[in-house]
Design goal:
The chain starts with a strand and ends with a strand. It contains no helices and ten strands. The strands form four sheets. A four-stranded antiparallel sheet has the order 1-2-3-10, with no helix packed on it. A two-stranded antiparallel ribbon has the order 4-9. The model has no long low-confidence stretch (mean pLDDT 81). The protein has strands at 3-6, 9-34, 45-70, 75-81, 86-87, 91-93, 97-99, 102-103, 107-112, 117-125. Strand 6 and strand 7 form a beta hairpin. It is mainly beta.
Length: 126
């Protein structure tokens, strides 16, 4: 069973099958061969610049039945709404400055999952 897991979320292939054959009928690749000098300690290599292939699918079909699980207490979305600052009355000392509190309200909105959610979905390719 193939799968993928992230903290709080996991995906798996519950029932996945592939049948048939895929044959390469023709293809071409262009690129550069690199041959290192005697002082280099490297193997010969090939740099692939472009290429194309023609495939034939014989009796090919695939069935993919996938599953996803979301664990409880996973925070899905949090939005912090910006609010304007409000200056509250203070006092002023002439020639020196003014002192007064500034009130900056904030609103945070969030969603969270309280129970485990399981999804199963799939598709067929023919």
């Amino acid at each position: 069973m193939l799968g993928f897991s992230n903290p709080g979320v996991s995906f798996e292939c519950k029932n996945c099958t592939v049948t048939g054959t895929i044959d390469i009928l023709q293809g071409s690749v262009s690129g550069n061969s690199t041959t290192p000098g005697p002082a280099d300690n490297a193997d010969e290599g090939f740099s692939w610049d472009s290429g194309s292939f023609t495939f034939a699918m014989n009796g090919f079909s695939a069935h993919m039945e996938l599953g996803a699980t979301i664990e409880p207490s996973l925070e899905l979305v949090t939005y912090n709404a910006p609010m304007p600052s409000i200056g509250l009355p203070g006092f002023k000392i002439p020639g020196i400055g003014a002192v007064g509190p500034i009130f900056t309200p904030g609103i945070a909105i969030g969603t969270e999952i309280g129970t485990q959610l399981d999804f199963t979905y799939g598709f067929d390719l023919t």
